[in-house]
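Long-time lurker, first post. I've been practising inverse folding by hand and with some scripts of my own, and I keep getting stuck on stretches where the structure tokens seem ambiguous. Below is the full token string for one chain I'm working on. Before anyone asks, I'm not after the true native sequence, just a reasonable design that respects the backbone. If someone could post their per-position residues I'd love to compare against what I wrote down in my notebook.
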């Protein structure tokens, strides 16, 4: 935790990250498409919110405590490090994740209303799942390279309106959150030009 606190202080003092808030309201989290992954169905606590830019994309970084159902009459909390990129336009709700990051959340499919998650080709390690409200769009953007980049980063990502939301397990130093945002920018760079011109 000391390393995490040190990184928070470092980025709070960095002029590139011009807005910092120690805590945000639950309603603030709603704009990211709660209760889609990685957000909990019973509550969310976003802390140490930083806003700036990563590779030209307006970016928001924060730590998330996602409250969800566990066993009977029990609630569990999962902790994540989250990065959000603002994209040039809205895209169909779509997500890809390392399965272990979403298996225990007991929440709606990601994104909501997208149907049951589908496993990416068998034999992939770690196991990956995908989901989309537009299967044709998902086929277009979730290429082998996109799957490999996502798996190598041990992350999940989700498109919600004009936002790309990415998450990794546990509360990490903000250097790792910036790295997560950079990987997300790499994924976006893999999207074909028709995604931006033809939708």
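-- Answer (accepted) --
I ran through it position by position. Result:
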């Amino acid at each position: 935790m000391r390393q995490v606190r040190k990184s928070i202080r470092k980025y709070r003092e960095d002029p590139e990250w011009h807005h910092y808030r120690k805590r945000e309201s639950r309603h603030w989290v709603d704009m990211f498409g709660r209760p889609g992954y990685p957000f909990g169905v019973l509550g969310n606590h976003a802390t140490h919110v930083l806003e700036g830019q990563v590779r030209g994309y307006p970016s928001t970084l924060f730590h998330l405590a996602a409250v969800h159902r566990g066993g009977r009459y029990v609630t569990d909390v999962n902790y994540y490090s989250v990065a959000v990129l603002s994209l040039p336009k809205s895209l169909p709700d779509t997500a890809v994740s390392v399965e272990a990051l979403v298996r225990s959340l007991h929440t709606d499919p990601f994104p909501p209303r997208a149907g049951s998650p589908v496993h990416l080709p068998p034999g992939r390690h770690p196991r990956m799942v995908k989901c989309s409200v537009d299967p044709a769009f998902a086929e277009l953007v979730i290429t082998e390279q996109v799957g490999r980049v996502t798996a190598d980063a041990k992350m999940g990502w989700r498109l919600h309106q004009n936002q790309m939301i990415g998450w990794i397990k546990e509360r990490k130093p903000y250097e790792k959150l910036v790295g997560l945002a950079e990987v997300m920018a790499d994924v976006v760079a893999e999207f074909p030009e028709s995604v931006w011109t033809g939708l």
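A couple of notes from the structure itself: The beta strands are 19-24, 43-54, 57-69, 75-86, 94-98, 118-119, 128-132, 156-160, 163-169. The chain has a mean pLDDT of 86. Happy to go over any region you disagree with.
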